[in-house]
Amino acid sequence: MTGRSHMLIGAATAIAACAGHWLVFSPATIFAAIFGSLLPDLDTERSMLGCRVRWLSRRFAAAFGHRTVTHSFFVPLVGALMVWHFEGLAALRGFWGAIWLGYASHIAADLPTGGCWALYPLSNRRLAFWPYARTGGIQEAVLLMISLGLLMALAFVWTGQVQHVHLPRNIASMA
Ligand SMILES: [Zn+2]
Question: What InterPro entries does this protein map onto (predicted)?
Fold first, then answer.
C-alpha cells in the first residue's frame, strides 16, 4: 500500500479503537497511530518515511529486504508489552499504544497487497491474503475504501453502544 493509504487506515483504526474505549481519544493519539502506520516501511528508501532517513532505510533494505522483519506482528506485540511493563496500562491506552496499533494496521493492510513476513520469527515466509491488490492500483483504492468503510462502521457501532447521541432541542427544531 502507499504511505497515504497506510496513514488513512492507521487513523481510522485509531478512531475505531477510541470509539471502543481501547484508546483514549486525543489529537496526539490519532497522530501517533498515523506515525506508527508509516514505521514498518522504514525498510525501504522508496517509502514516505524511508526516503527521509535513507542512511537507515538503505542499510535495512540491504540487510533484510523489504516487508520482512519490520513487517512482523511480533514487533508491535513486543513493543506494546514493553510499554505495558515499563509505563503501565494507562500509557498503552494513549500515545504509545496508538503507535503500536498504527504499526499493526500497516502489517494487516500489507497482507492483501503482496503480503509480508507477518509471523516472523515463527515463519519467514511471505504471508499474503486474498484478494491480491497491486500497490497504487485501482484494486488498492477499492480495498482502501472498503477498509475505511468497515472501520468507520465499527467506530459507529461502538460509539452507539456507549452513548446515544441526542441533538440539542434548538438544533433539532431547526432541522
Ligand atoms: Zn509495508
Answer: YdjM-like
